[in-house]
Design brief:
It holds the Pfam family TerB. It comes from Paracoccus kondratievae. The structure is a single chain. The chain has about 150 residues and is mainly alpha-helical. The protein has one domain: TerB-like, CATH 1.10.3680.10. It is built from 8 helices and no strands. The N and C termini lie far apart (about 45 Å).
Length: about 150
């Protein structure tokens, strides 16, 4: 199952077909996991935040979201580099949804209450790779900080 999904996600880049809903959500979940693992501290708080984001995005139950995250953890561990991974999402997910993905990434980045330079750098890199401009990424970042009760410094 996971091998087939990896094949679909990273198939020939000339294939401009949209990922189906389930594949696209696993790709997004995998990107969230990749971010949470960026600082080598992938804990329960980040896992729970990813579950919340996934549940909110597609109306999943808590159990369904946790299952999707578990699948994403396996996919992320085998996925190629972030550049190729995000290229796949950019080619197959609409811009408006990519902006929401960046907002979710910022939310996960700050979920543990820590400002980590590796995570922040990865979100900025992914935003650029997904074609989300700096202004929209900064607005999403500030909203995530506000929502989590953190002060921007």
């Amino acid at each position: 199952m996971f091998r087939n999904l990896l094949t679909r996600l990273f198939a020939d880049s000339t294939d401009q077909t949209r990922l189906n809903g389930q594949d696209a959500e696993v790709a997004v979940a995998s990107l969230l996991v990749r971010l949470a693992r960026a600082d080598d501290h992938y804990g329960v708080v980040e896992q729970q935040r990813i579950d919340q984001v996934l549940a909110r995005r597609r109306g999943l139950t808590r159990i369904e979201a946790a299952e999707k995250r578990a699948a994403a953890e396996m996919i992320e561990a085998e996925a190629p580099d972030t550049v190729r991974f995000t290229r796949t999402i950019k080619e197959r997910v609409e811009l408006q949804d990519r902006q929401k993905i960046i907002a979710a990434l910022w939310e996960v980045a700050y979920a543990d209450g820590q400002r980590d330079p590796e995570e922040e750098a990865l979100v900025r890199l992914v935003a650029g790779l997904l074609g989300v401009n700096d202004r929209d990424s900064a607005l999403a970042r500030n909203q995530a900080l506000d929502d989590l009760g953190q002060v921007d410094s």
